């Protein structure tokens, strides 16, 4: 799989949202159409005429805009560099070399090899913290820098009106695993005092708040792959209720350790293509066999339009709305009748004030699992059955009724009107968020 953001959807990471926000910042969006990520066009005959759009939010105090983005990825810590690698179709997957994989069924991942925290994480914390939280601190601070909310700007702001909602699926897995191994060897009396606080999933938001001095709402959400979307939705709600002006929201994860790889492999979630890791993630392909483990962090700065205008912020995109539902079906398998997903997509559009006819881009969950891919596709087809043209990335091997654009190894201009991003997690957690180019 060449687009790294797709490798990370099943780790509650950021790729789809970072790419989405980046795409929406341009009048014409370049969408990669390499062999691994062909954009699909669903064409239904006799499509119905476009209907009037529902009413969108007009109050600048309640309109939510994206003013900053920050990330840590296999391609580095720079959003523009990351985006460029996506457009080039650069492969971020390879064999794991940070630990011995001889006894593991899966030996490859989207592993970060070069990570720079200097200037973002103090030396003591850099030595002590789990990678999950180091990634979060760097991505969070870079997002604030991107939004022109660096230390000098924050000093003059009311930081009780700035909060953080950054989630994780498993949190500080490395430090927890390491400390437990030491406890087994040395006994309980040698337990590290950070064994309990450091691994828990709220540490990302907590550490950002402590480091930067944010006194607004600060907590985490953990809904497996749906986490980041849930955080965006929660952050937006705080802004819309007038509780804050700015929220830092997103996800972080660092699960590439032996227990992380072995655990996800045990539940048959990971691809076993050790001989060709660059072809392992293959959404909707007949031979798909699971996702590829990745790591990193992706964080957005969300704020009210009113606040962004007052401070002269550069607006990247607009967050229109979102929704969360539950399949109430199975721990790892999706609901076959797709009701959980379709209701989530429908509710997200209702919250955003948009109609299905306005949506012309779907950033799919697309985890390359046998059951998950076809379930998501069926849900998308059910919701957008009367839409004449919609593009989905990370999709191939669709049903015969669907006409697909199969132009390989080229980039294609596509002007996005409204985009939705799907993320679905273990436990039946469904989340969909809606973005659009900012319009005054």
From TrEMBL:
The keyword Cell wall biogenesis/degradation does not apply. GO terms for biological process: fatty acid biosynthetic process. The keyword Transferase applies. Belongs to the thiolase-like superfamily. Beta-ketoacyl-ACP synthases family. PROSITE patterns: KS3_1 (PS00606), KS3_2 (PS52004). The lineage of its organism: Eukaryota, Viridiplantae, Streptophyta, Embryophyta, Tracheophyta. It comes from Dendrobium chrysotoxum (Orchid). This is 3-oxoacyl-[acyl-carrier-protein] synthase. Catalyzes the condensation reaction of fatty acid synthesis by the addition to an acyl acceptor of two carbons from malonyl-ACP. It catalyses: a fatty acyl-[ACP] + malonyl-[ACP] + H(+) = a 3-oxoacyl-[ACP] + holo-[ACP] + CO2.
């Amino acid at each position: 799989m060449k687009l790294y953001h797709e490798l990370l959807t099943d780790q509650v990471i950021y790729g789809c949202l970072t790419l989405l926000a980046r795409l929406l910042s341009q009048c014409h969006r370049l969408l990669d159409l390499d062999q691994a990520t062909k954009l699909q066009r669903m064409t239904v005959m006799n499509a119905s005429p476009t209907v009037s759009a529902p009413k969108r939010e007009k109050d600048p105090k309640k309109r939510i805009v994206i003013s900053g983005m920050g990330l840590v990825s296999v391609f580095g810590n720079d959003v523009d560099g990351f985006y460029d690698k996506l457009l080039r179709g650069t492969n971020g997957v390879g064999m794991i070399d940070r630990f011995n994989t001889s006894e593991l069924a899966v030996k490859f991942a989207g592993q970060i090899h070069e990570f720079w925290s200097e200037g973002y994480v103090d030396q003591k914390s850099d030595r002590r913290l789990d990678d999950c939280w180091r990634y979060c601190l760097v991505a969070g601070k870079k997002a604030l820098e991107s939004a022109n909310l660096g230390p000098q700007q924050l000093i003059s702001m009311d930081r009780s009106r700035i909060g953080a909602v950054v989630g994780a699926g498993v949190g500080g897995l490395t430090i927890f695993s390491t400390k437990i191994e030491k406890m087994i060897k040395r006994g309980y009396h040698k337990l590290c005092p950070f064994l309990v606080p450091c691994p828990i999933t709220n540490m990302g938001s907590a550490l950002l708040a402590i480091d930067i001095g944010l006194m607004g709402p600060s907590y985490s959400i953990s809904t497996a792959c749906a986490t980041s979307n849930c955080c965006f939705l929660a952050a937006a709600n705080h802004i819309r209720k007038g509780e804050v002006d700015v929220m830092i929201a997103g996800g972080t994860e660092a699960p590439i350790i032996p227990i992380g790889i072995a655990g996800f492999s045990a539940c048959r979630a990971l691809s076993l293509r050790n001989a060709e890791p660059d072809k392992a993630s293959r959404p909707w392909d007949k031979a798909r066999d699971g996702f590829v483990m990745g790591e990193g962090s992706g964080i957005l700065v969300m704020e009210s339009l009113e606040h962004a205008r007052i401070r002269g912020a550069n607006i990247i995109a607009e967050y229109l709305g979102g929704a969360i539902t539950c399949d109430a079906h199975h721990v790892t398998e999706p609901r076959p009748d797709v009701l959980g997903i379709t209701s989530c997509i429908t509710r997200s559009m209702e919250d955003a004030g948009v109609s299905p006819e306005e949506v012309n881009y779907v950033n799919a969950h697309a985890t390359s699992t046998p059951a998950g891919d076809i379930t998501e596709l069926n849900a998308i087809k059910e919701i957008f059955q009367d839409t004449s043209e919609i593009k989905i990335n990370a999709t191939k091997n669709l049903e015969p009724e669907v006409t697909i654009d199969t132009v390989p190894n080229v980039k294609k201009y596509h002007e996005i009107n409204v985009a939705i991003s799907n993320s679905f997690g273990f436990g039946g957690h469904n989340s969909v968020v809606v973005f659009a180019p900012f319009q005054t």
